[in-house]
Design brief:
Length: 102
């Protein structure tokens, strides 16, 4: 499974790539990378049809474990999916902007 760093995520976001945050709703509301879509891992299989199949799909979680699982699932379905190493926690710790709230 491919993992990318935060710089690659920033590039993807700037290019309009799809970014899926697989953390649970309460985690997502606390702090998230701007521009991501929340599809919690607990709902992922049921909602997988909401995820585009064209282009690279970036998958992020808190630190990288759940996003690896989701990216592997997408890759098995033929989607070009990558997991973001370090996740939202590292994004915030490195001073990058975050959003919060519903």
């Amino acid at each position: 499974m491919r993992e990318v760093d935060l710089a690659a995520l920033e590039t993807g976001l700037a290019e309009g790539a799809t970014v899926i945050d697989v953390r649970e709703r309460d985690e997502y509301v606390q702090a998230r990378v701007p521009g991501v879509t929340n599809i919690p891992l607990s709902e992922f299989v049921a909602r997988v049809e909401e995820i585009p199949t064209e282009g690279t799909v970036y998958v992020i979680c808190a630190v990288g474990g759940r996003s690896l699982q989701a990216a592997q699932y997408l890759a098995a379905r033929g989607v070009d999916a990558v997991s973001v190493a370090g996740g939202t926690d590292l994004w915030a710790r490195t001073g990058r902007p975050v959003e919060s709230g519903a």
